[in-house]
TrEMBL record:
Any single Gene Ontology cellular-component annotation: cytosol
GO biological process: methylation; RNA processing
Protein name: rRNA methyltransferase
Domain tRNA/rRNA methyltransferase SpoU type: 1-99
Length: 104
């Protein structure tokens, strides 16, 4: 069930994003924010890289990832979508990103 996956996928929520990103970096994690930034790589490009431990950052459905956070992360990533579609809700984006980056 979807409720059971909360115990299989490590996740957290933080109100201290700058400090959290610094801590992840200090421990060797690559940080990637899902965003529509012009310099964002595609999710396919992200999957093709050997990054080791990866922390994905998702923003709110209305505002997205805070611009300060987007500047602080290692990578900015976008989900490729059909022309005319420019966003997904955060649950759908999370599901797509987690599926794409799963380890088999």
């Amino acid at each position: 069930t979807s409720m059971g996956n909360v115990f299989n996928v490590p996740w957290t929520r933080t109100d201290r994003m700058p400090q959290t990103l610094d801590l992840l970096s200090e421990h060797g994690w690559t940080t990637a924010a899902l965003t529509l930034s012009d310099d964002a790589i595609t999710l396919d490009d992200l999957v093709g890289r050997d990054l080791g431990a990866l922390a994905m950052i998702f923003g709110t459905e209305g505002a997205g990832v805070d611009p300060r956070t987007a500047r602080q992360v290692d990578l900015r990533v976008r989900i490729p979508m059909e022309a005319g579609v420019d966003s997904l809700n955060v649950a759908a984006a999370t599901a797509v990103a987690f599926y794409a980056t799963r380890s088999d």
